[in-house]
Amino acid sequence: MNLKFIFCLVLLGNIFFVSAQQDMLVTQFVFSKMSVNPAATGIDDGICATSLYRNQWDKVYGAPNSAIFNLDANLDSKIGGGLGLAFSHDAIGFARQNNVLLNYAYHIPMDEVGKLSFGLGVGMINYGLNSANWVTPSVPSNLDNSIPNGFTSTKLDANLGVYFKSERDLYVGLSSTHVNQTLLSQVVNNVTTTYQSRRHYYFMAGKTFRELGPGDLDVQGLYRTDMTKSSFDINARYIWKGFLYGGLAYRMSDAVAVLIGYVPAKNMTIGYSYDLTTNKLSSVSKGTHEIVLKYCFNLPSPPVTKSNHPRWL
Q1: CA pair distance 100, 13, nearest whole angstrom
Q2: I need a labelling partner for 205 at 20 to 30 A (CA). Which of 3, 26, 49, 311 fits?
Q3: Among the ranges 1-10, 33-42, 133-142, which has the highest mean pLDDT value?
């Protein structure tokens, strides 16, 4: 059966009331933890900007294309926590979802143990359907009038999380996205379209094993569920002499992936992953491509001024 027809049927079957696992999946989640756990905001020193693009199931019509942009800063010396802006865009078929949240994380130093963080993200979720490109498989000249044309709705969205980073290169985090389960709806051409965002839960953990040969071994795990469907990812990267890395990833019942990366400077990382599809689309998918760019910097310290007035000698 034509794959265009299959995707259109799936979308049509969910168009009047959509309630499913909606959060995007990314292979290199180690670079986008703030997107799903606001407590990870500013957990590392400095100011970091991260961009990620994912082309899922390459060559499959209507397959997901996703983008992430995160900006976060460690402000422990000023406000005792971190601030960040998290933006994500996900396109599937003729559906589009955008999320933008302002994150704040309160960091609690734990002497010689690590840092405990509690985070809140508040922002907006936007969901839209554009059926301008919808064509019925049998009669190309006819459009289905029951499909809303130009539906879009925007409402409040919120994430919560807790995160612990130890002094021994270990971290664990627990979080929830869309905690308010926003209900978006709109009436177009006497058709009411409703989109229910589902609350998702995440558990993440990672450990870096230092000085294994000429480099370090970094192992990361992420479990996600909306209490209906679940998935689990595990990544392992070997970072050679601090500037090159390679590794493998596995996503339960979905894909295995190859990870490669280059660290041209201590504050910059360029990464790429290729997922080999193992689910039912394996016969038609050309795999999934994902590229990430991360850059961090520290603000210069303010200059120390001295007075030469005799009173202050």
Answers
A1: 28
A2: 49
A3: 33-42
Domains and CATH numbers, the chain: 3-294 (2.40.160.40)
Burial class of 168 by CB neighbour count within 10 A (0 to 12, 13 to 18, 19+): exposed
Across-strand partners of 168? none
- For residue range 273-286, list pLDDT tens digits in order: 999 999 888 888 88
Per this entry, what is the length of the chain? 313
- Tens of pLDDT, residue by residue over 66-103, are 999 999 999 998 888 999 999 999 998 888 899 999 99
Q: Residues 6 or more apart from 110 whose CB is under 8 A from it?
A: 116
How many degrees, rounded to 5, is the angle at CA 33 between CA 32 and CA 36? 105
CB atoms within 10 A of CB 190: 7
